[in-house]
Design a protein that fits this description.
InterPro entries: Peptidase_M1_pepN, Peptidase_M1_pepN_C, Peptidase_M1_pepN_C_sf
CATH class: Mainly Alpha
Largest sheet: none
GO molecular function: zinc ion binding
CATH topology: Zincin-like fold
Number of strands: 0
GO cellular component, one term: chloroplast
Pfam families: DUF3458_C (PF17432)
Helix content: 55-70%
Organism: Papaver atlanticum
CATH superfamily: Peptidase M1, alanyl aminopeptidase, C-terminal domain
Length: 161
C-alpha cells in the first residue's frame, strides 16, 4: 500500500482520465480501511490541480464521505485548506467553499466547524484581494443565525486579529 500511495501522490497532481481511473481503482482496493480512505480523501483535497475546489465538492457526495464524521472532515476539508493554490485561489472560490461548509457543519458539529474556520485566522497575511475575500467569508459566517459559540469565538477573534 505504501508504494501504491506514493505513486498515487505523484499522479494526483495531473488532471485527466488516468488520474480519475487510478483514484477509483485505489479506492476500490482500500475502501474497507477507513484510515486509508481518509488519506485518499486528503491526498485529493491537497492537490494543486486547477480549480480543485470542484473535485472536493464532488467528494462531499462520495459514498465514503460523511460530514458527520470528524476524521473525514479533517481529511477532506482540512486537507483542502492546506492547499496554498486552491484554498487561496485568487477568485475566492476556496474561501467561499470553506465558508459554506463551516455554516453547514456548525449545525452538525460546532467543535469541528470551529476548527475548520480557524483556517481563516491568518487572513491578514495575504494580499489585499485575498484579505477582502477571506474577510467577507468570516463576516458571512458571523452573520449566520444560530451560530454556535464555538464558531463565533474563532470567527470573531479572526476578524479582530
Amino acid at each position: 500500500m505504501t508504494d501504491q500511495f506514493a505513486a498515487l501522490a505523484a499522479l494526483v497532481q495531473n488532471p485527466g482520465k488516468t488520474r480519475d481511473d487510478v483514484l477509483a481503482d485505489f479506492y476500490g482496493k482500500w475502501k474497507h480501511d477507513y484510515l486509508v480512505v481518509n488519506k485518499w480523501f486528503a491526498l485529493q483535497a491537497m492537490s494543486d490541480i486547477p480549480e480543485n475546489v470542484e473535485n472536493v465538492r464532488k467528494l462531499l457526495q462520495h459514498s465514503g464521505f460523511d460530514l458527520r464524521n470528524p476524521n473525514k472532515v479533517y481529511s477532506l476539508i482540512g486537507g483542502f485548506c492546506g492547499s496554498p493554490v486552491n484554498f487561496h485561489a485568487k477568485d475566492g472560490s476556496g474561501y467561499k467553499f470553506l465558508g459554506e461548509i463551516v455554516v453547514q457543519l456548525d449545525k452538525i458539529n460546532p467543535q469541528v466547524a470551529s476548527r475548520m474556520v480557524s483556517a481563516f485566522s491568518r487572513w491578514r497575511r495575504y494580499d489585499e484581494t485575498r484579505q477582502a475575500l477571506a474577510k467577507a467569508q468570516l463576516e458571512m459566517i458571523m452573520s449566520t443565525n444560530g451560530l454556535s459559540e464555538n464558531v463565533f469565538e474563532i470567527a470573531s477573534k479572526s476578524l479582530a486579529a
